[in-house]
Amino acid sequence: MSRLTERRETILGIVVREYIATATPVGSKTIAEEHHLSISPATIRNEMALLEEQGYLTHPYTSAGRIPTQKGYRYFVEHLMEETELPLAERRMIRHQFYQAGMELEQWMRLAAAVLANTAQSAALVTAPKAVSCRFKHLKLISIHDLLALLILVLREGTVKKHMMPLAQPMTQSELNRITNRLNAILADSSYDEVAAGLPHLSPFEERVVNCVIEMMEQVDRWSSSEIYRNGLSHILRQPEFAEVERLWQFLRVLEQGSILESLLAEVWASNGVQVIIGGEGRWGEINGCSAILSRYGITGEAGGVLGVLGPTRMAYERAVSTVRYVAGLMSSLIRKLYGY
User: Fold this and answer.
1) Nearest Cα to 294, choosing from 277, 280, 312?
2) How far is CA 35 from CA 28, 99, 112, in A?
3) Paired strand residues for 66
4) Where in the sequence is the domain holding 242, given as residue range(s)?
5) Of 191, 209, 210, nearest to 134 (Cα)?
6) Which of the residues 8, 64, 82, 339 could staple to 4 if both were Cys, CB 3.0 to 4.6 A apart?
7) Beta-bridge partners for 198
8) Burial of 263 (0-12, 13-18, 19+ CB in 10 A)
9) Are 316 and 188 part of one and the same domain?
10) 121: Cβ–Cβ under 8 A, 6 or more apart, which residues?
11) Chain mean position to CA 295
């Protein structure tokens, strides 16, 4: 996106900030009277018309005022938004709330969602942390009857997976214990890649067990957002953009279910830093008119999750970004403590 002239950047920045604050189209008269630019209202009107021609502004219906487009918000975020921190008093209060939660992971998840929602005045979500790459801890084979065994796989981060295994021939529990002990010794602390690379000198049944382990570890390594903590619906209900019931239901469908949220979280999980997604960016049509500010948290290469806020494109981006960044930092510190870093 090529840079605008300094004058157009100033006017675009004013329109974006005024519209975020008031939800009312911004006219040239308002800009001239309230922001004391050293240019005439006529010049401001001309510049706003050019910004509209370039796709940064639009005007609703016959209103003389302008509002930002998705392109206008994107330019604002990339070039005009100030890098700010939350005020010190707010940071201290938030940090104190997390300190009072102790080391209870679930309390941290719920608190993070509440803090994000209340500070950014938007809907918020926090996914429970998961390992970047799961590691084998141990397995157990339990005889159900002569031709059926239960495989229980325990991973280092605490995940437990189960699978029923038909047996080609009857096997006693002592035979299953011997195989269990051998495989536990071979696979100890292995990652999915290490297990999948292949193991020598296995019996046919041991190969079947290891293949089941590989499949279960692969499932765990795939992104999964099954446990999501949410907050802030009341803030969304107060936004004029969601006064129409259909738009509200569309937003709730994204927030509560389905592949769109899964896709968003998976992309942020694979990236670093705060990600600002405006109006679906042409890829997620279901969130046109909405924005998401999301960040990964945790330990690089070890474990973590995703957190952030969702709301209308008319979002206070500077405050939302600083809130998401700060809470992600606090959550990362918790994960480091839990993992002994």
Assistant:
1) 277
2) 10, 42, 37
3) 26
4) 88-128+227-338
5) 191
6) 8
7) none
8) middle
9) no
10) 232, 235, 316
11) 6
